[in-house]
Write a structure and sequence with these properties.
806 residues, alpha/beta, Hypothetical protein af1432, Rossmann fold, seven-stranded mixed sheet, 21 strands
Amino acid sequence: MTILSSSNLFSHPDKTLREHLYNVSEIALSNLRKETPDFSSIEISNDILKTLVKYISLSHDFGKSTKYFQDYLDKSIKTGKKERGKLTTHGLISAVFCSYITGRELERYHIQNENISSHLKYLAYETVKKHHGDIGNIQEEIREINDENRLLLSKQIESINVEAIKEIYAEDIDPEYIESFFQNHTEIIDKFKREQLKFSRKIAKTKNLRFAILEQYVFSLLISADKSDASGLILKSGDIRLNPTLPEYYIKTKLPSGQINAIRDEIFQDINFKAAIIDLDEKIYSINVPTGGGKTLAALGFALKLRDRISTEKKLNSRIIYSLPFTSIIDQNFAVFEDVYKEYYGQKPSTDILLKHHHLADLFYRTKDDEYSTSESKLLIEGWNSEIIVTTFVQLFHSIFSNRNKSLLKYHNIANSIILLDEVQSIPPKYWLIFKEYLKAVSEVFSIYFVFITATQPLIFSPGDEIIELCSGRDKYFKTFERTKLVYHPNLIPFEEFKEICIGDLADNPDSDFLFVMNTKNSASELFLSIKDAIGNTEGTEFIFLSTFIVPFERKNRIKKIRELKDRKRLIVVSTQLVEAGVDIDLDIVYRDIGPLDSINQVAGRCNRNSSKDMGIVKIYSICGENGKPFSEYIYDITLLEKTKKVLDGYDEIREPDFPEMNNRYFEYLADAVSRDESIELLNYFYKLDLANSGENFKLIDNDYPQIDVFVQINEDSGKLWERYSEIKEITEFFERRNEFSKIKSDFLNFVISVPLKDKNHVGYDEDLGLGYISSEEINQGLKYDPENGYIRPKKDGGNSGTMIL
């Protein structure tokens, strides 16, 4: 293929290389202008940042100008076959070119700090080199410039038509720079490697997170712009205004009156008033009110008013990101937000206004005027292109602590946002230090407002000093709410004896609803069967079992049923911990196998939530199996359990007004006892630009117990989904297969559970598919899955089921 001019060079089958490079640059720079980050504390001005982003964008696919890539693209168009080789790759050659050109363009800023200059050249190199993959480790990335790759680069450079490159960049790059690169590329590469090895030894000593944050941000700008242009998807972003009083209107028109709602309204007004008077230079806030105090609506109202104020005073459009720890409560809170919008505007919000994002969410994106294809929707959703995003801690924090391409796609969109962190006590104490340091830094760089929402405030930030409470009447409200008392039974009790206590209490309180929360799936299942067997099918009583061994589709229905049947039937609910955080149910008497104090607080929030009884009772027991080992020790850190017991031992019974004091003591004990080693290790990875290890080692949810996914065909809808899935897996073309599965993914995953890896033969696990399968016939025969009790483990692994982690 003869290359005569830039018009002969293509980046994609239907797009010239010049067009693609300038489109990506325009998109990236547009986002940068809207987001206005501040890296001045590491001596990087807005002009320097703009130059950096511009030349990274313009250079990112420079390597596609080689004869080898153009021949490959031409052949793939004609034959439909994609036959790649080392010489057709474009990441490394583009990175080397980018680092050189960016360095030359930055010379006019006369950067005196050698570390800053070296970092910007490395950042340009790494961002471009990895723009189709994940950010790596500075040491390993520089070592990849070895003899083999030098030879590869020389062959690629020699195949490029220099005049065509000058033509592409005529408006923006001095032709002398281009000629210099082609004439001296060997020396340029060697100098770059020496300089960066020296820099890599120095960078860790700076102990400044902003270098890593800058790398994540620029990488995000590039990959977001690149994917947008490559897909042909350019979302028209308008300034969508939202009435800041939406929650007030909803409260006035939809919520019933009464004493408990009067207190919730007072809390709402207390918090929302602060949006007009807070110092906008302060970025870390707290909403610390009792469970059931209406904090979700109060937080949304505050965020909408703060968003409106920022728009007026700073001329910035702030996203609201509402994040929770568990997918089990995302749908519930998203439905509330949707209802709040609909009550005022008379219609459901489009996706560009309100977005739900977690692994079970639908891949469907629409605006007022347009609907998007599945592949387009996937890109828009994963990029968080909406005004209000409701998502999980995993989605949020595995993005901001990440090196992964897919996760960092949305990273630049957190700039200028208001991030509401609900149930923030769920953050593991071992990560308190890195959360504190990273959130503080990122809030300053991107003008992000963090609001920690909880009834049990962890000591991530020092109260009053590093974090500002938005609810000035907090202490009064905790004293006002006297719905519940905790009764702790400190002695270890065998599971069989515990079951008898539960059955006896059920008989003694025939008019009360009960909730039993166990630490393991199997102990919960066994308790449920024992209770049901003892009480029998009593008219007017509804038995409900909840566990992640139940498919998500059915779990959602059962939680909905608990709310619907309240005050219509006597409810006896047995569950694992999934029922705790944020699930809006209200029961009279609660039993809880001991766990960390924040978990106990959460389950207490499901007891007499709406003050329908004079006093709800939460009974805490420490339960053990036949081997004498407490079930709690199978799943919780021993330090958390010890500090919980130390706090509880100080009380005969604990009434709700005493919860704040109890919680403060607990978190003070933890602050002194929990190791900070993992946080320090992660911080050090960030300091030395080893983002590969930071992304690999940050795990918000420990998954030390190996599991596999299993599809369960429990009804007609799941049968149809399995048939469609079986058709899709026969599609040979990867991208078509992936796109077709995306269309059914959210529905499909509603029938998927996770089971122990050791059960793989039991469920017919297919290694190629990465999926097990339980058929409707097996369910009808009473094998593998029970419609009421969920997954049935193989008998050979049974033993005392109460001791199983799952």
